[in-house]
Amino acid sequence: TLGRYSGHGRGDALDGALKGDRVARNGVHGACSPRFTSAMTPLAPLALALALYGASMASGDGDAPVAMHEGLDLTVKDTREHWDLEEFAGTFPKHVDVWGIPVIATEATQDEKVLHAAKVMAQYLDNDEDGIPDDPNVISELIGNMATLVMATDEDELEDAMDAVWFGDMQANRGFQDLYASETAPADGFDASLEEVHHLLLNYGWAKVHPDELGQRKGSAIAQAMDVARGGVFDEVPRRYPKDAWFTYDDRTCGYNCQVSEYVYWATTSLLGGQVGRGDEIGNEWKLETPEKVLEVDVQAAAILQDPKLGLPTVLPDGNYSVEL
Question: Which of 13, 42, 160, 260 has the fewest CB atoms below 10 angstroms from its CB?
Answer without folding.
Answer: 42
